[in-house]
Amino acid sequence: MKTTNEQLKLAADTIRCLCADMVEKANSGHPGAAMGMADLAATLWLRHLRVDPQDTAWKNRDRLVFSGGHASALVYALNHLSGTGGVTLEELQTFRQFGSRCAGHPERGVMPGVEVTTGPLGQGFAMAVGLAIAAKMKRRDNHTWVFMGDGDVEEGISHEAASLAGTLKLGGLTAIYDFNDIQIEGHVTDTNRDDAKKRFEAYGWKVFEIDGHDYDQIHRAYLRAQKVTDAPVLIIAKTVIGKGAPTKAGTHGCHGAPLGAEEVAATKTALGFDPAKSFYVPQEVYDLFAARAALCHHWRNRDVKAEKAAIKAAGGPAAPETDDARRARLLAALPTFDPEKPVATRAANGAVMNALADVFPALVGGSADLEGSNKTGLKKYGWISAGDFSGRNFHWGVRELAMTAMVNGLTAYEDFRAFGATFFVFSDYCRPAIRLAAIMDVPSIFVFSHDSFYVGEDGPTHEPIEQLAAIRTIPNVTTFRPADATETGYAWVEMLMNTKGPSCILTTRQNLPVLEGTRAEGVAKGAYSIWQAGPQTKDTVLFLASGSEVSLCIAAAQKMWDESDGRQSVRVVSMPSMERFLAQKCTYRDYVVPEQMTKRVIVEAGSRFGWDRFRLDFRTTRFVTKDDFGASAPYKVLAQEFGFTVENVLAKARELVGRQG
């Protein structure tokens, strides 16, 4: 059944009224963009979008991203009309209320059909690029659509992502730019007079310009976009924000505030709806969406049938692998490291990644123009490039924030475990997208080399100090700072096993000894005793450290044990993942860091922030941390100047037992 323009208008006007009602009832929200995009959205959904409301996980579905997540009322109206997720009219009335699936911004995992969580402008656009890349890599017949607005176009992340998409000639991606020239403070042209058409064309995009309220123009633009296979497409749709509202349409007054009861009533009257009826949907509109849903469900069933036939022809489905079997398989694939040869954990990280890539084909990714330093190249598997998506390595370019968001998009596609890599100090550029991955429960992986002031000669601009503490403060992020090459391998196994939330691994520039006593189960639990001597009693001096400082503490502990002729008990705890350790049962935590061991020396080449939780008493705890910025010099000189030496750590321990060296 072909949908007529009159039917599209009825559907779009219904959406406008529903969105106005949602925001009005909540007394909070953004009606303007949702109402302005209603014609674009209704045409896409009823004539072009391939999604099945009965199966939102259909692998061959189109991906639709609302980068301007503030227009979430539009998402929920579409879900209700199409039957996606069983969203009822009553549920629309809980918009923006506690516990409602109709949240202020669309949330992956909360509202069915929401591919990625959006809200921070530009990130949805960048994640859509990642989704489109994933589709190319899987050779699937699905299109990626993304609605974006003026704010998305202004944000720097969209420039980064658009540039790479154009470089890759990323067909199968269509961005629909809701160009309404309104933002919170007034007209966009007050602050931004870029020519978006010329800019995106310069990036290598095909660009079409249309009237965003003309159904014929919209339809033709969507058809043209789907035929372009050698470039991403931008459709610049000139729209009126709040279209349908008699006095507020076209003004910033309808951007982020309810229209008001009088304006809502006047809007409904102007659109031919009964102003006395709230949350009203004509049956004809339900029928239109039902007919489209039935067609998409037919396509989905055809795909599933073909997939089942292919599996049967290949000998049937493989037995599912248990978590224990998967972990054992990954552990068995890890390389071993020579205890006689110190190695930087960034180099060990590369060896581990290449070994695991052979047994974990979903692993894909790359560095932000730092592969030679990060050591993240998967050497056997080729590079993604324009027209060739058969490899597993990416040249992300110097685009840290977009890289991180595109990695989230790739991982959200659910066929890949994608990673991005850069120097740890640049995690500040990545942080907004890492946070979004944590909110979404997307298990992206981020590799950060050059993890401390041991970067050396590059100086304070490149020496991370506060970054580790900052990453640890983000909920649902698991961070690993391995003490040596072996712990690096165990950390990778845990990251690949983790399917809930992102993981970060921090690696060193400088060589570290390969330690004895490392344990896979200890890394899995976040912390463990890696070296100890003497009876472990309340008089034991407990050294706590992560990463490169573990070997430093072991050397200091050994010297303390030797100089006391075995009278002073010591324990060294390696804590590669503070988050993992704090998530363990108290019995394990107390076993590793017993309360009776009050004499503690805590050592980490970064901010002290966060470590005070392991201090029981100011008088019996000493810290060797770095709480100001670094300096430019060879790293061994910096270690001496900053007190990261065996002598200084030992002196701190001696203070606790009342002895001088």
Structure description:
The protein is an alpha/beta fold and 661 residues long. Helices cover 42% and strands 13% of the residues. It is built from 25 helices and 20 strands. It has a six-stranded parallel β-sheet with strand order 10-9-11-12-14-13, sandwiched between helices. A five-stranded parallel β-sheet has the order 1-2-3-7-6, sandwiched between helices. Helix 1 crosses helix 3 (38-47), helix 1 (5-26) runs antiparallel to helix 11 (261-271) and helix 14 crosses helix 19 (485-497). It is elongated.
Q: Give the overall shape, derived from the CA principal axes.
A: elongated
Number of DSSP helical runs: 25
Fraction in helix: 40-55%
The fraction of residues assigned to DSSP E strands is: 5-15%
Main beta sheet strand tally, sense and closure: 6 strands, parallel
Report the C-alpha radius of gyration, rounded.
Answer: 28 Å
N-to-C terminal Cα separation, in Å?
Answer: 89 Å
Alpha-beta classification? alpha/beta
Tally of strands: 20
Query: What are the low-pLDDT stretches, counting only 5+ consecutive residues below 50?
Result: none
Strand order, main sheet: write it out: 10-9-11-12-14-13
Q: Mean pLDDT, rounded to whole units? A: 97
